Amino acid sequence: MSRRMQGFTLLEMLLSLTIIAVLAGLSLPVYMRLQQAQDLDGSVQKVVDDLRRAQLYSRDGYMDSTWGVHVATGAVTIFQGNSFATRNSTYDEVKSLPGAIVITSPTDIWFSKLYAQPDTASIITLTVAGMQKTIQVNSYGMVDF
Q1: Structure confidence at residue 1 (pLDDT)
Q2: Which of 39, 67, 112, 134 has the most other CB atoms within 10 Å of its CB?
Q3: Beta-carbon-side half-sphere exposure of residue 41 (alpha carbons within 13 Å)
């Protein structure tokens, strides 16, 4: 009477590991691209939210001042005043952005008190790994993305 051993052979184990490695290798670039797209979408939403918040602060006359947004690679800052350089930094609201996001824009956008119109119409461009999104602020203060 012979007894047969049960289990997996070394060849079956190596074949399974090879299939798993190939699938992981093929899915990693897709995952990275998806992560970059989500970072870009999240960054656009942060910038738009901050633009609208600064606009709201200016329209409401919060702290009896104008408010603006300073957009730079790595961070978005809501500031009090007409210029980021001469602002009162006590009231800054800073949100960080992923370092891979490259921002091309005017450095400051500030909104007039009560009417909340921007100092100039602006286009802010956010880019990561060949993907690009644009935020437009027209002369009436409408933020579109």
Answers
A1: 56
A2: 67
A3: 6
